[in-house]
Amino acid sequence: MPIFKHQDSACWHVDIVSPSGKRIRRSTGTEDKQAAKEYHDSLKAELWRVQYLDEKPERSFEEGALRWLNEKKNKRDIVDDKTILRFWREHLSMPLHEIRGGMALEIVHQLDVSNARKNKYLAVLRALLRRAERAWEWIDKAPNFTMLPEPKRRIRSLTKEQALALVDELPEHQQRMVIFALATGLRQGNVLGLTWGRIDLDRRVAYIDGDDFKNGDDHGVPLNDSAVDIVRQCIGNHPTHVFTYRGKPIKQANTKAWRNALERAGIVAFRWHDLRHAVATWLVQDGTPLFAVQEFFGWKDGKMVRRYAHLAPQHLAQYAAGLDTRLRRDSARG
């Protein structure tokens, strides 16, 4: 029987043998018999076209989103992907092959967020469609996407005097966190989540698991004297976590005390994450080779460290000297 009903289901089901011999039994999603027949006929025609005309079966955006989430379930920012795909699901009730970049651009403008955030929505959709083309072979060609312009990322740093003034204005438990962050360059989440099991004082290293590190790789950070002093001050305060307040692990660094300390120190437009920018700036200004800075921060992409290269052009001095020598030789010939 081509269409039928299960005893425990109100919807009609189809029972079809495809031209390739594969048996397909699935729900039509409707209780209306005529609509179920139309679904049956449409599915049978599609299977014939796929078999004999080498057409790809139509795949809905929802199918693509579900497969993406299943294959990417271990992705670090999968929760954000779920939010983004939920948005696209509300606006893309069509087969994947009908989605166009211009269409997506118009839709994303509905979001009241920055261009950088809109580009994240576009990037996830673009990646899904490229996967549908290249890995799943669901569509013939993924569409082109035009990304929105973004302002250049700012690099907000601190002078030595500003850093010391800020530390002086903070309560003791936040002083420790800020000094440790400035000594290691670690992100706020890595500092707050640091546990004793990740500290090796004999080797003077803090280990960050890949699950807790942005690029997904395990990372080791050297502990200089300032960092070691801070860690030793925290010994015995808590059985698992290094940084605590009133006997409990600290969950938030961007507090009123932090903001008040910034104000008293005369530092404006500064975020906790900017401590990391300050460390990178100091390292580059002190002549640390860019490859070492990249390794120190665990950056996979060299473009991250190149954001700071302009702060220390002296590493190009030897090449400038080569030009100087050439000019002197040319002058001598004249």
UniProtKB/TrEMBL annotation:
Task: Give GO terms for biological process.
Answer: DNA integration; DNA recombination
Question: What InterPro entries does the record point to?
Answer: DNA_brk_join_enz, Integrase-like_cat_sf, Integrase_catalytic, Tyrosine_recombinase_XerCD
Where in the numbering of this chain does the Tyr recombinase domain appear? Answer: 153-321
Protein keywords: DNA integration, DNA recombination
Q: What is this protein called?
A: Site-specific integrase
Question: What Gene3D superfamilies would the database entry show?
Answer: Intergrase catalytic core
Q: Does the keyword Nucleotide-binding apply?
A: no
